[in-house]
Amino acid sequence: MSFLSHLECARCGEVHAADRVQGLCTKCGGPLLARYDLEALGKSVKKSDLAGRPTNLWRYREFLPVTNDENVITLGEGMTPLLPARRLGREIGCDDLYIKDEGLNPTGSFKARGAAVGISMCKELGIKAIAMPTAGNAGGAWASYARRAGIEAHIAMPKDAPTMAMKECLATGAHVYLVDGLISDAGRLIGAAAKHFGWFDAATLKEPYRIEGKKTMGLELAEQFDWELPDVVVYPTGGGVGLIGMMKAFAELEAIGWIGAKRPRMVSVQAAGCAPIVRAFEAGKDESEFFQNAETIAGGLRVPKALGDFLVLRYVRETNGAAVSVTDDEIRAALRLTGATEGMFVSPEGAAAIAAVAKMRRQGTIAAGERVVIYNTGTGLKYPETVDVDLPVYPVDDPEILVRSQS
Ligand SMILES: *Cc1c(COP(=O)(O)O)cnc(C)c1O
Ligand SMILES: [Zn+2]
């Protein structure tokens, strides 16, 4: 049971069949998006049907492309908490602030959503081996879900990607290739290898179904707010798939009459050291240019040129949103502030989004009373290097020293 009808090029509109393995548009090289028979979908499910369903992203079964339930590969991804952040909000001047905590996903980031649906579709289409470049988290997620599906995974990443992602890939039996370069260099290498060996190239947006998993972030947001979208959504952007996916979710929900025409202002956040989309936004361009010497502690944002940049820019403008960059120092400060106020150890990417909201409050581009949702896209536990441990060791037999050190 699936309402998937076909794939459509996001750039030129060319229709492609959905019953076979597809990559980029065969006509123009643009990314393909899954299209559904929304009329039939809308008739088959009611909002109230969701109540008794599993608390993972497969509760939105009708909105997903997998036909045969036996091909569903899950580790329990999705339905992450939407947490009010009152104490953090007070610090940065937001009265109605929420954090959607994607760090609770399997593999510690929202990449699990894309991998769950992407790998389920690989299984359904009979793919035996996948290959992809990653900044870190996507590799860990795809390696995990691939292994669970019995599919071979070949993952290439920068040699300075977070070590936890490398360990995750190795622990789950992937073939890991480190490169002396960026994710774009890893992509060139693994793309060529995939062609040579006949592996399926599952790179961001070259593969049409990862975005279907990520769009569930938008479905959940709507359901968790009782089908009333917030005023502002702030999303840390690398490839931009999460933001594009959420907009796709909102469009599908509107098409079946579950929400109205109101959209949140979509804010795309990047790191100052790698901000191709922010640059293009500020220059009034429809597409970004390759960002030279990309460097930031927020590894998931180190994507110097995204295939879906034109869609991110379109959606940000269409919703009257913004593209905002923050420095690594601002990211570190936001990470500490969120830990100190909310007890949440967020990823540097999530911290970037938090820093951006603080900045937009200072600039007045977000008002104090607006309902703002920040996506913390991963758990801080995957980035142990963001916190320095420089502590004395105490002699156990002399509590006096401890007492004196407090005063
Ligand atoms: C991949 C990643 C991002 C960027 O996500 P896109 O959807 O590719 O823009 C943000 N945060 C974390 C933690 C990530 O792993
Ligand atoms: Zn096309």
Describe this structure in words.
The chain has 407 residues and is an alpha/beta fold. The chain has a domain at 82-108 and 210-386: Rossmann fold. The protein contains 14 helices and 13 strands. The strands form three sheets. Strands 4-5-13-10-11-12 form a six-stranded mixed β-sheet, with helices on both faces. Strands 8-7-6-9 form a four-stranded parallel β-sheet, with helices on both faces. A three-stranded antiparallel β-sheet has the order 2-1-3, with no helix packed on it. It starts with a strand and ends with a helix. Residues 9, 11-12, 14, 25, 27-28, 30 line the site of zinc ion.
Given as residue ranges, the uncertain stretches (5+ residues, pLDDT < 50) are: none
Radius of gyration, CA atoms, in whole angstroms: 21 Å
Distance between the termini: 66 Å
Overall 3D shape: globular
